[in-house]
Design goal:
- The complex is a heterodimer of chains A (about 325) and B (about 325).
- Chain A has ten helices and eight strands.
- Chain A is α/β, with parallel strands linked by helices and about 325 residues long.
- In chain A, helix 1 packs parallel to helix 10 and helix 5 runs parallel beside helix 6.
- Chain B has about 325 residues and is of the alpha/beta class.
- Helix content of chain B is about 40%, strand content about 20%.
- Chain B is built from 13 helices and twelve strands.
- The longest helix of chain B has 16 residues.
- The chains are: A alpha/beta (about 325), B alpha/beta (about 325).
- At the A-B interface, helix 5 and helix 6 of A face helix 3, helix 4 and helix 5 of B.
């Protein structure tokens, strides 16, 4: 599949936005203005490729590690940053924080702080689509840790039984908290779990956003016609479990190897090699994102520093 | 009475609502074969798009219901009480928090009917009465009908209101034939209030000497005991059915207790940390405290398990005899 250059640029833009947003959030965490745990998508930004493969009316659920999904969905980053800093003018009025927010303007049905709690909600939403004869689908973004839990298998069983349009997108980032994935799953590939439910399961290169995009495009076509499908996106969590995680359990050369295979570096190389853009083009895009984030930063800091706070917001 | 059992009333309320509101659905295991209690007959009337058979896991079923509700449906799901604790994670951590956590961006109008409470000759794990756990969950509406007419109105109200509701239906009451017994547990409708608001406590019997605050299957036990105490000892009891366990209508309770000065709080669920404890605490904190002429009496199940053989149930779960003794004691 030859991916249209405009789509590639869009994916690149969203991936870079995820990373720069997380850098900004990290600074605010460092300065104490964000008090919630930050579970970064750092290294997993190729997930934006999956979001770009969806239609606008598709329904999205996500886990606690959700910033790459949210930014790719075009959740308003000013409101998100305000939410993370606990402001009344935040996306959910400061009620939910970093791990469990929603945005109905972009069909983001919600992130949930509790492992695996989203799988069956996603199946319920898919059941609703089927009952209404709608032509869209539900995608649920979850990690390898959540895919160990009973809810995942109950969700697969029900979705398979009722042939519901759901994509189970499992981001296998190598770790569940500090434990390696192979210590919590008795199969090499989580995609293999699909066979027990007689549904398809495929693996995508989770650091190759274009491969993720293509895989989800095909998966979406399948899901709408024939029912649920598992996509295991093999990637690597460059970040800690949360911001305070020192990651002493990781080997240094392991992280270094994955840094060489960084998803943003990969798509940048592809764009430059295939002459989809020049270095100047890419820097211009970066500048645009930086401006957007700067504006969000200024908005949030303005509220924090103003004497009335944002009580009336 | 129009409906002789609570289940019959629930089925009628669901059918009436489903005929008018196409977003109302019934989810459950075996609903197609009429395996649910309320869903009897609904499948043949509304078909597989409205009465939906799903696998038996109740936590999964509740999460499914929430996913449906987030897209605008109003699902009803039935849970046998022994699986309520499995579902409780989804009820507390997902369904009840959705409105608050997502700042009202998504609906969560799920109606859960939990068949719970102690029955004779059931195995230990089947015998559970954990409604007190539900009232610890903020914003979750918890209603407990004591009669078919209320059951009809409560389910109708749940399907018309925003946010989730749990109907706690006691197993001992679900199929109880109210028309066959000569005990009236229904209140008379106030002429100036044409609608039956489930969140208002109702006076079942009017009296001056002792207040009896109760709900669910204990209502008919309290009415029987109060009538006996009146006939045999001339003691008159003010029997109040609180109906809604969350929120609780404290004003009605406080008013009654302030007038009588003596109060018995009664339910069939266990005593420690039970709903009676909460009601007693509220009375003690309110202006009614100044009117109390005797210590508050709680009549509840003992803090032990109800086993299979008759004696375990009889020893553990209170009935009208216990209420009668309590009335005589407190009225002394």
């Amino acid at each position: 599949m030859q991916i249209d250059s405009r789509v590639v640029l869009r994916i690149f833009y969203k991936m870079l936005k995820a990373r720069l947003f997380e850098e900004e959030a990290s600074k605010l965490k460092e300065s104490g203005l964000i008090k919630d745990e930050l579970c970064l998508s750092l290294g997993q930004e190729a997930t934006a490729g999956a979001v770009c493969a969806l239609n606008a009316d598709d329904i999205v659920f996500a886990s606690h590690r959700n910033f790459a999904v949210a930014t790719a969905l075009d959740v308003n980053i000013t409101l998100l940053l305000a939410e993370l800093t606990g402001l009344k003018s935040g996306l959910c009025s400061g009620k939910s924080g970093a791990q469990s927010y929603a945005d109905n303007t972009v069909n983001f049905y919600g992130a949930s702080a509790l492992y695996a709690s989203y799988f069956n909600k996603a199946v319920g939403a898919a059941l609703s689509l089927k009952l209404q004869n709608r032509d869209n689908l539900v995608i649920v973004f979850a990690g390898d840790g959540a895919a160990c839990m009973g809810d995942f298998y109950e969700a697969l069983n029900t979705a398979a039984l009722l042939k519901l349009p759901v994509i189970f997108f499992i981001e296998n980032n190598g770790y569940a908290k500090s434990v390696k994935t192979e210590k919590i799953h008795n199969v090499k590939d989580i995609a293999q779990r699909a066979s027990g439910f007689e549904i398809p399961g495929f693996i995508a290169d989770g650091n190759d956003a274009l491969n993720v995009y293509e895989t989800i495009k095909r998966a979406a076509e399948y899901a709408k016609k024939d029912g649920p499908i598992i996509i295991e996106s093999k990637t690597y969590r460059l970040a800690g479990y949360n911001y305070n995680d020192e990651q002493e359990y990781k080997k240094e050369d392991e992280t270094a190897q994955w840094r060489d295979y960084d998803p943003i570096k990969n798509i940048t190389d592809y764009m430059l090699h295939s002459s989809m853009g020049t270095v100047e083009d890419l820097l211009m895009m970066r500048k645009k994102i930086e401006q957007e984030i700067y504006a969000a930063h200024e908005f949030v800091m303005g509220l924090i520093n103003s004497s009335d706070g944002d009580k009336e917001a | 009475m129009k409906y002789s059992t609570i289940c019959e009333a629930l089925g009628a309320a669901a059918a009436d609502k489903m005929a008018k509101d196409f977003s109302v659905l019934v989810l459950g295991n075996g609903v197609r074969e009429n395996g649910g209690r309320l869903s009897r007959g609904l499948y043949s009337a509304f078909g597989s798009q409205r009465v939906i058979d799903v696998p038996p896991s109740k936590d999964m079923g509740c999460a499914l219901a929430l996913g449906l509700a987030q897209t605008g449906a109003k699902p009803i799901i039935e849970i046998e009480g022994e699986y309520l604790l499995r579902a409780l994670d989804v009820i507390a951590n997902e369904i009840a928090v959705t409105e608050f956590m997502y700042d009202n961006q998504y609906a969560s109008s799920v109606t859960i009917i939990a068949y719970t409470g102690f029955v004779k000759n059931a195995s230990v794990q089947i015998n559970q009465a954990y409604e007190a756990m539900l009232i610890q969950i903020p914003s979750l509406k918890v209603l407990c009908p004591s009669n078919p007419s209320d059951a009809y109105d409560f389910l109708t109200c749940a399907l018309e209101s925003e946010g989730p509701t749990v109907l706690v239906v006691e197993k001992s009451l679900a199929e109880y034939d109210f028309n066959a017994e000569n005990i009236s547990v229904t209140h008379t409708q106030d002429a100036d209030k044409p609608t039956n608001n489930p969140f208002e406590a109702k006076r079942i019997l009017k009296g001056e000497d002792v207040s009896i605050i109760t709900y669910g299957s204990m209502v008919k036990e309290c009415v029987a005991a109060a009538k006996a105490a009146n006939i045999q000892k001339g003691i008159s009891c003010d029997v109040i059915d609180i109906r809604s366990l969350n929120p609780i209508d404290y004003n009605t309770i406080i008013k009654s207790v302030s007038a009588t000065g003596k109060v018995i709080v009664a339910h069939k669920a266990r005593r420690t940390g039970g709903i009676a404890s909460e009601i007693a605490a509220i009375i003690a904190q309110s202006e009614a405290f100044d009117y109390l002429e005797a210590p508050i009496i709680r009549i509840c199940a003992n803090d032990e398990y109800t086993g299979y053989a008759d004696e375990y149930y009889d020893k553990c779960v209170p009935d009208k005899k216990d209420i009668y003794s309590a009335i005589l004691k407190i009225a002394e």
